[in-house]
């Protein structure tokens, strides 16, 4: 099969004859002229079929086309300032490649369950395609950000014996004669080992939480990027985060204009996302919330509503730092100035999107870390290698995890993160 | 903590005073002068300590340093043409940050099991660091190759109801009230759905095989990149593969010179890896093997030894195409010219590394595909969405999967793929 043109490239081919393959989006016909819009994944193209200019087979084909039929069209590319890409195609021939009877997703409103059950077909819609393209850009921006700064990618394992965040929300599987393996909730602990070898590293892969949660911010399988930096303290860590988030947002503003327009995303709030980000301590956050009428008390974790309330006070993401030790993970470094807190931060996105980053300086003192592992009742033996990092040349280090889906949802202005991954996994969904 | 210099950047800082943090690699001392090599993940630096130039504490510290102690040194960067980076540091002060008593990996030879049990520490070695840096470059090269060619990244799910390659080698986990979920062996089927939406796509993530295999080419968890292209046939597919593999190899030759030198990799064979690659049909491959004395017969799959024998006849990777239907997966397109074969190819790397790519044109005929699903006894319902792709505007399409670890092992010249991933997962290894 010879290569054919892609719709994206047509503006450079005005006046030329091309062949194209794609899928039917809309058809409209009068007695003598038919208009056909096709998509090929790289764009949308209006094709004009004049009855007098084509043979009978082509005209008949054009009248019978249905939604999502795959077709081959050929003809001349003409300038047309009214079209999205500035061109249209004057059809000389048209052939059906794959019929499509009763494509289940039409113009009418469908329920969410109906659409997710047909996610493999729903992905073809203009809105879903735009979201996937923004996600694609976000991921490449993440990779480029770290590559340009000489961070080394280290792929951490998904099948693990040790656990990261919290027991009780783990997927488990039998692992040959070695007992159970758990699906990783984070790559961080492994990234810490790699940081001692390579200095500045990041891991970036899928992570899992077997949480019985149905909020718009939760998936059971989601992607997370986790940088880990030798010799960074908590302040350095926040500086890296604000530089990173600003970079990703700026890149989408620069390269995803068309997609953000399709999604009806107001770019104004995104244009404010410039470092530095405001920083408030956990204590200040509690005071602010109480001033706003909340009855939250020092020591309680911030819930989604509290995060939204706080973030609404700022025009860009805000850091909340140094949470109480008891609401955070065992590996966070005790704050020497106030041992009831740890050196950590969350980064809350504006516009109600809440936490997109959780980060911390890591406990680098062997005995303090061992104490925390014991307090939490974690399996000491499984963490032997992790403790070793504090035994052989321990080092100040910090890192964080950014949730890709939450970030993409925020940038796209999409309310629920299930829409920003191709095949979302939720408590109630494993298909398709 | 203020930022300190990285070893990589020192050649630009000759004559300046800097502070550095890192880990002790070697120490050597005479009565009046001590030499200390430290590493920080970005390079190695020789530090020279003259007793007469430093205070007593620094001199004493220098005498007591042990392998992998973390230290802070400061002093002046001096040109030194004998050093690897062209510079050395004249120490003014030196402090231990984290002691390291009896670091378990020394200069003597250790057994493989011993080293993998201490993988979190072994990663700090010069050889392992070099391998990780090559892997890092390979992965970014892969991402850049597809990004530059407008392929859209689509992250496919790891928790799946449907299966990809073969039953019986799946890890499984309980999934809430939905029964069992399986860890994906491939993202291809999902990538096919995405190709109908976006034209040219790729997925790139970890994949799993619960195989009781102990060869040097197998891991239970490994990374695979899988492009899928609408309107590509099997020939287009092979052209994409040879362009892709050549790109990745060229990029490593260009950007990983130092690492390949550390690994003692002969660059000659890599420099031959230029498209086009030779292509032989499966039938020809059988004939060649028989001519070489093998008793292999038409219809049998090629084993690792046969692959090595074939690949040895060429100076670059070789394609073997159109295998018998019965040794290949159900989704491969029946060859219209010979229905006992399918339109597919493997790509065999030279120097005994064997298969690095498996690819095929996909069966786009609904009824033929359904027939194959039934023949294989696969759960028809779980494949309903996959069959839908042939029901609504079916399309010629092809794709392939390249195994990252096999590719990195080949480029590094490392015999066993377990060494080219930070924390390998094998039948007998889940720790660290």
Give a verbal description of the structure.
Chain A is α+β, with helices and mostly antiparallel strands and 432 residues long. Chain A folds into two domains: 96 residues, OB fold (Dihydrolipoamide Acetyltransferase, E2P); 301 residues, Bira Bifunctional Protein, Domain 2 (BirA Bifunctional Protein, domain 2), CATH 3.30.930.10. Helices cover 29% and strands 25% of the residues of chain A. Chain A has an eight-stranded mixed beta sheet, sandwiched between helices. Chain A has a five-stranded mixed barrel with strand order 1-2-3-5-4. The longest helix of chain A has 23 residues. At the A-B interface, strand 1, helix 3, helix 4, strand 6 and strand 7 of A face strand 1, helix 3, helix 4, strand 6 and strand 7 of B.
CATH topology of the largest domain in chain A: BirA Bifunctional Protein, domain 2
**Can you tell me the CATH class of the largest domain in chain A?**
Alpha Beta
Cα-to-Cα separation, first versus last residue of chain A: 31 Å
Order of helices and strands of chain A: EEEHEEHHHEEEEHEEHHHEHHEEEHHEH
Quote the average pLDDT of chain A.
95
Strand order of the largest sheet of chain A: 6-10-11-16-15-14-13-12
CATH architectural arrangement of the largest domain in chain A: 2-Layer Sandwich
Q: Looking at the chains present, what oligomeric state does this protein adopt?
A: homodimer
Number of strands of chain A: 16
Shape assignment of chain A: elongated
Please, how many helices of chain A?
13
> Which superfamily, in CATH terms, is the homologous superfamily of the largest domain in chain A?
Bira Bifunctional Protein, Domain 2
Helix content of chain A: 25-40%
What is the alpha-carbon Rg of chain A in Å?
Answer: 26 Å
| Count of distinct structural domains of chain A | 2
Largest interface: A-B, 104 and 105 residues
The description of the largest β-sheet of chain A is: 8 strands, mixed
**Strand residue content of chain A:** 15-25%
User: Structural class, judged by helices and strands of chain A?
Assistant: alpha+beta
* Unreliable segments of 5+ consecutive residues of chain A: none
């Amino acid at each position: 099969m010879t290569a054919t043109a892609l719709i994206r490239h047509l503006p450079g081919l005005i006046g030329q004859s091309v062949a194209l393959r794609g899928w039917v989006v809309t058809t409209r016909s009068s007695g003598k002229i038919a208009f056909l819009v096709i998509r090929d994944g790289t764009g949308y193209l209006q094709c004009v079929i004049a009855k007098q200019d084509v043979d009978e087979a082509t005209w008949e084909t054009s009248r019978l086309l249905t939604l999502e039929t795959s077709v081959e069209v050929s003809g001349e590319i003409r300038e047309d300032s009214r079209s999205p890409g500035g061109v249209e195609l004057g059809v000389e021939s048209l052939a059906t490649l794959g019929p499509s009877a009763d494509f289940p997703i039409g113009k009418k409103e469908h329920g969410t369950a109906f659409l997710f059950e047909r996610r493999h077909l729903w992905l073809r819609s203009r809105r879903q395609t735009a979201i996937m393209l923004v996600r694609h850009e976000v991921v490449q921006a993440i990779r480029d950000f770290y590559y340009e700064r000489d961070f080394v990618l280290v792929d951490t394992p998904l099948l693990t014996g040790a656990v990261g965040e919290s027991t009780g929300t783990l997927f488990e599987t039998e692992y040959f004669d070695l007992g159970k393996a758990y699906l990783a909730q984070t790559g961080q602990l492994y990234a810490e080992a790699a940081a001692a070898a390579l200095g500045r590293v990041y891991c970036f892969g899928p992570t899992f939480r077997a949480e019985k949660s149905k909020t718009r911010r939760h998936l059971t399988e989601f992607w997370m990027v986790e940088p880990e930096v030798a010799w960074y303290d908590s302040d350095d860590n926040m500086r890296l985060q604000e530089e990173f988030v600003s970079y990703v947002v700026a890149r989408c503003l620069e390269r995803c204009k068309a997609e953000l327009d399709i999604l009806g995303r107001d770019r104004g709030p995104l244009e404010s996302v410039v470092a530095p980000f405001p920083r408030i301590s956990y204590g200040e956050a509690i005071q602010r919330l109480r001033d706003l009428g909340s009855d939250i008390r020092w020591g309680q974790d911030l819930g989604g509503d509290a995060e939204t309330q706080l973030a609404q006070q700022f025009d860009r993401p805000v850091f909340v730092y140094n949470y109480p030790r008891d609401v955070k993970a065992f590996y966070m470094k005790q704050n020497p100035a106030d041992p009831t807190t740890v050196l950590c931060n969350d980064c809350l996105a504006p516009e109600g999107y809440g936490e997109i980053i959780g980060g911390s300086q890591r406990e680098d003192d062997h005995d303090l870390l061992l104490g925390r592992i014991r307090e939490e009742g974690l399996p000491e033996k499984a963490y032997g290698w992790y403790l070793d990092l504090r035994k052989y040349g321990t080092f100040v280090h910090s890192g964080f995890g950014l949730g890709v889906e939450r970030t993409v949802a925020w940038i796209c202005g999409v309310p629920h993160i299930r829409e920003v991954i191709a095949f979302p996994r939720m408590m109630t969904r494993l298909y398709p």
